[in-house]
Structure formats: C-alpha cells, structure tokens
C-alpha cells in the first residue's frame, strides 16, 4: 500500500486494537484532512509518525485546539522523498544529519548513538527530541518511522534542551563551569539564547587557540561566563528570527537586545534563504533558528560572538 493507504488503515481502529497510529490519523482528519491530501500528492515521502501515547501528553493536548498550529506541527513530521535507516546512517557519517521538512524552513536533525550494542536513532524538530520506536515501516512510495513524542511542542526548559542536545554540549559545558546554567531553568523568565554549536567552538580553536584553551579550563570560568552572558537575551518576550529581521528592517540598522549585564547590538538579515547575524562587523550564520523551549527560544549559530581579547589574563 501507499503511505496514505497505510495511515487510512487506522481509521476504524479503537483503543482495544493494535492501532499504533490511530491518534495520528485522527488528528489529521480532525484538522480537515488537508495534510492527508498533501501526503497523497507528494509522491515519494517519509513520515515521522508520533505514537498514540505521544499525543496524550498534556502539553500536546493543550495545542490541539489551534488549527493553524496543528497544521504546522503535522507538516514538521513530513519529509519529501524516501529516507530509511541506512540513509540516515549515511547522512550521519560525519555530522548530525539535517533534513528539510514540508513545513517552511523547518529541519529535522537525526542523531545515532549506540546503547548496549544497538543503535538508537533520535530526531529533533522544533525543540523536541524524540526517539524512533519503530523504523522503516516500508510502503510502496516511502517510509513511516514511529516516534515517541510529537515534534514542535516543547516540553523542556532552555537548560534541559542544552543538556540533552548533542549539538550544544560545549556551550552547556562552559555554562556549568561558572554556574551560568542555573538561571536557564527559571520558568518565570523568557530567554532568547544564541547558542554556538559544538562545531562553532571548534572553529575558535583554529582561530584563537590560546583563547579557546583558556575558555575550556575551569580556572577561567569568569571569562566564559562573561562571553555566555553576551549571547543570552533576557526580556519579557522571546525573539524569533523573523522578529529580529523585522526589527532590523524597521530600525534601518542594528537593534539593541537586553542581556544580563548590558545589551547585545546585532543586525539580523536574510541572505540566500538563511538568517545571518552581524555582530562587531562579523557575519555569523544561524544554523538552526527558533528552537522552542518552555521558557524561551534557542538560535543555534555557526560561530560564537567572541574576540581574541575577551580572555586576557594580567601577569603578576
């Protein structure tokens, strides 16, 4: 059968039957069924289908009444073309695999780790990390992978996201040195955090070897904290990339964003289909925009807002 026919096979199933994707199908139909029509028209396709239990989460149920939001969430689970486990392995050979979805400018990030001799595949989308429960359910025109969470509805704080995301481990480590991370669990605040991915910090090792070495030593936690504070915007709202682009256009120049000690002066623009931040005359690409969390939003960037003079140690 096709992927569409496979999903339709859950139509008449109830809680007492083995309808693994019954709730996924019901959510599609409760929102008008247009998504199913889109799936039928796409030809080759891959679906990341949340299990029935995934839809029962309280945070998910609270969003099901918003039709526009649900449509966006469902589209985040759909990939054009066939993508099976073997291809995910291939894409992950050198880096975390980034795969576009039919939801505009939204990517999924696949990661593979080994546990007790078995590969565990995780997928991140819209701030949510899900585990693949059953992979490669093959159909004539694509694949269905059953996952344990609904993507796009955050359930972790900024701190919890940093701690669990394999792309942000170095920034998490730096924040642990100086207790900087503790504040990121505060759900009464709204954070916009520009997080350099691990590869970004590796670039600074080549550009500023001495500075990089000091930053990752606990004795220099004061310096690492000061640098991280520059990346953390604290306000009564979060700033999406679209917000920052609009603010830049309105001002005609850079915008000032409130940080812990001072303010961050940046210009945010779109170039060739991606977001670019200009800071201190440096252009920094945004690798993953708008990673939502329960108390803020994370923008993963390709280079830290860092100068070599940021880590200066006086003698004597």
Automatic annotation (TrEMBL):
<feature type="domain" description="FAS1">
    <location>
        <begin position="155"/>
        <end position="305"/>
    </location>
</feature>
<dbReference type="InterPro" id="IPR050904">
    <property type="entry name" value="Adhesion/Biosynth-related"/>
</dbReference>
<dbReference type="Pfam" id="PF02469">
    <property type="entry name" value="Fasciclin"/>
</dbReference>
<dbReference type="GO" id="GO:0005615">
    <property type="term" value="C:extracellular space"/>
</dbReference>
<dbReference type="InterPro" id="IPR000782">
    <property type="entry name" value="FAS1_domain"/>
</dbReference>
<feature type="domain" description="FAS1">
    <location>
        <begin position="1"/>
        <end position="151"/>
    </location>
</feature>
<dbReference type="GO" id="GO:0031012">
    <property type="term" value="C:extracellular matrix"/>
</dbReference>
<protein>
    <submittedName>
        <fullName>Fasciclin-1</fullName>
    </submittedName>
</protein>
<dbReference type="InterPro" id="IPR036378">
    <property type="entry name" value="FAS1_dom_sf"/>
</dbReference>
<dbReference type="GO" id="GO:0007155">
    <property type="term" value="P:cell adhesion"/>
</dbReference>
<dbReference type="GO" id="GO:0050839">
    <property type="term" value="F:cell adhesion molecule binding"/>
</dbReference>
<dbReference type="GO" id="GO:0030198">
    <property type="term" value="P:extracellular matrix organization"/>
</dbReference>
């Amino acid at each position: 059968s096709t992927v569409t026919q496979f999903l339709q096979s859950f139509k008449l199933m109830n809680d007492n039957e083995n309808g693994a994707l019954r709730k996924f199908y019901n959510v599609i139909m409760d929102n008008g069924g247009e998504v199913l029509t889109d799936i039928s028209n796409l030809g080759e396709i891959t679906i990341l289908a949340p299990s029935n239990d995934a839809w029962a989460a309280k945070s998910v149920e609270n969003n099901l009444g918003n039709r526009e939001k649900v449509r966006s969430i469902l589209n985040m689970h759909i990939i054009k073309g066939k993508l099976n486990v073997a291809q995910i392995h291939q894409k992950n050979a050198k880096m975390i695999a980034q795969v576009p979805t039919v939801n505009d400018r939204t990517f999924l990030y696949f990661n593979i780790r080994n546990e007790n001799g078995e590969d565990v595949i995780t997928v991140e989308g819209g701030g949510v990390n899900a585990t693949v429960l059953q992979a490669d359910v093959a159909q004539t025109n694509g694949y269905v992978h059953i996952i344990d969470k609904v993507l796009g509805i955050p359930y972790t704080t900024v701190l919890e996201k940093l701690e669990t995301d394999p792309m942000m481990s170095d920034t998490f480590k730096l924040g642990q040195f100086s207790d900087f991370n503790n504040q990121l669990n505060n759900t009464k605040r709204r954070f916009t955090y520009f997080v350099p991915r691990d590869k970004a910090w590796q670039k600074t090792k080549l550009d500023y070897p001495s500075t990089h070495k000091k930053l990752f030593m606990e004795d220099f936690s004061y310096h690492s904290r000061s640098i991280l504070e520059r990346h953390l915007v604290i306000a009564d709202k979060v700033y999406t990339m679209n917000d920052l682009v609009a603010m830049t256009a309105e001002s005609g120049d850079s915008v000032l964003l409130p940080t812990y000690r001072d303010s961050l002066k940046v210009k945010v623009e779109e170039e060739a289909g991606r977001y670019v931040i200009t800071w201190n005359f440096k252009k920094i690409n945004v690798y993953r925009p708008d990673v939502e969390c329960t108390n803020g939003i994370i923008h993963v960037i390709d280079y830290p807002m860092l100068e070599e003079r940021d880590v200066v140690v006086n003698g004597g």
